[in-house]
Write a structure and sequence with these properties.
326 residues; six-stranded mixed beta sheet; six-stranded parallel beta sheet; 20% strand; NAD(P)-bd_dom_sf; ER; Enoyl reductase (ER) domain-containing protein; Zn_alcohol_dh
Length: 326
C-alpha cells in the first residue's frame, strides 16, 4: 500500500518525547519486531500490490487500515474481544511498517475498502473516531441521556459527534483551551465548561434539574479533572474511561461508592465499531473534516508536526501528514 494521509496521535507524541513506550523494546510476540519501527497507525492509502493468495482487493483501490494486531488465541480473543488481546499491538507501533512512510506491507486482514464518498483525508480519522464510537457503544448511554466529556482533544471532539448522532440530550464538555472550546461548540456541544471559571458539578446540576449527567466520558486522564466531575454524575450513573493514564490516579472512590456510580474502561475499538464509523461517514452522518487543522509533508513531520503539537497544542486538533507530498 502507498499511504496517502496519516494522523499524528497522542501516542505518537509520547513515543517522540520519551519512547520507546508502546513500541516494543524486545521482539513483539506477533510481529517479531522491536524498536526502532516506522510510526503512524491512523492512515489511509492506495493499494499498489496484492499477495497471490489475497482475495477481494485489487491494485488501485483506496483503503483504510485497521491497525490493531492480535494473536487470536488468548482468552480475550477467544471471547471475541481481540481489541483486549494479551499481546495487543499496532501497525505503526509494533511492526509491519507504519503510515509515516512511502510504502507499507501488512496482512490483508488489516485493510478495508473505502466508499467513494469518503476522502482519503477523512479516512485518516476513522481510527480515532472508532475509539469514540466503541466507548459509546459499550457504555449504558441511550438516546435522550445527558452526558459530560472530559477533554476536547481529537477523541473528545469525536465523542461529541458520535453522541450527537446517537441522540444525546445535553452534551457538556470540560476543556481549558480556547480553540478546543470553539471546536466543541462547532460540533454540537450544548455547554462548554472551564473549571477555572465555574464549579462544574454545580453548573451541571443546575442545567439537569439537579439530576446530574447519566454518563461521563473521560478522554483527558487528569486526576484533578476526574475527581472534580464525579459529583456531576447522577446516582447509578457511569464514568467511562477512554484515556491512557501516564500515572496511577488517586480516585475519590468514596464519591463513587456513595452514589453507586459505575466506573468502566473502554479499550480501543472492535471491528464492528471500525466498520460502523465507515458506514456513518459514507452516509454523511459524521463530518469530521473540521478536526483537521493542518496538512504537512512527511519530510516536515518533526518540525511542523510533532513539535507543532508540543509547542502549539492550543492551535491544533489533528495534524495530517501527506505521505506522498514532495
Amino acid at each position: 500500500m502507498k499511504p496517502s494521509y496519516v494522523g499524528i496521535c497522542g501516542s505518537d507524541l509520547h513515543e517522540y518525547i520519551s519512547g520507546p513506550v508502546l513500541i516494543p523494546k524486545e521482539k513483539h510476540p506477533i510481529t517479531g519486531e522491536k524498536s526502532p519501527v516506522t510510526m503512524g497507525h491512523e492512515f489511509s492509502g492506495i493499494i499498489e500490490e496484492v499477495g497471490e493468495d489475497v482475495e477481494g482487493f485489487s491494485v488501485g483501490q483506496r483503503a483504510v487500515v485497521r491497525p490493531t494486531i492480535y494473536d487470536g488465541s488468548c482468552s480475550a480473543c477467544q471471547q471475541g474481544c481481540e481489541h483486549c488481546c494479551k499481546n495487543i499491538g499496532f501497525i505503526g507501533l509494533s511492526g509491519y511498517g507504519g503510515g509515516m512512510a512511502n510504502h507499507i506491507v501488512a496482512p490483508a486482514e488489516h485493510f478495508y475498502h473505502l466508499p467513494e464518498s469518503i476522502s482519503l483525508k477523512v479516512a485518516a480519522l476513522i481510527e480515532p473516531l472508532a475509539v469514540a464510537w466503541h466507548a459509546v457503544t459499550i457504555s449504558p448511554f441511550k438516546c435522550g441521556d445527558n452526558v459530560l466529556i472530559l477533554g476536547g482533544g481529537p477523541i473528545g471532539i469525536g465523542m461529541i459527534q458520535v453522541l450527537k448522532l446517537q441522540g444525546a440530550k445535553t452534551i457538556f464538555v470540560v476543556e481549558l483551551m480556547d480553540n478546543r472550546k470553539e471546536l466543541a461548540k462547532v460540533y454540537g456541544a450544548t455547554n462548554v465548561l472551564d473549571p477555572r471559571e465555574e464549579d462544574i458539578p454545580k453548573a451541571v446540576h443546575k442545567l439537569t434539574d439537579n439530576q446530574g449527567v447519566d454518563v461521563i466520558f473521560d478522554t483527558a486522564g487528569v486526576e484533578g479533572a476526574l475527581n472534580g466531575v464525579i459529583p456531576a454524575c447522577r446516582v447509578h450513573g457511569t464514568i467511562v474511561n477512554i484515556a491512557v493514564w501516564e500515572e496511577a490516579p488517586a480516585v475519590k472512590v468514596n464519591d463513587l461508592t456513595y452514589k453507586e456510580v459505575n466506573y468502566l474502561g473502554a479499550a480501543l475499538y472492535d471491528e464492528t465499531s471500525f466498520k460502523d464509523v465507515i458506514k456513518a461517514l459514507e452516509h454523511g452522518q459524521l463530518k469530521p473534516q473540521k478536526m483537521i487543522t493542518a496538512e504537512i509533508k512527511l519530510s516536515d513531520a518533526v518540525d511542523k508536526g510533532f513539535q507543532q503539537l508540543l509547542d502549539h497544542r492550543d492551535q491544533h486538533c489533528k495534524i495530517l501528514i501527506d505521505a506522498q507530498a514532495s
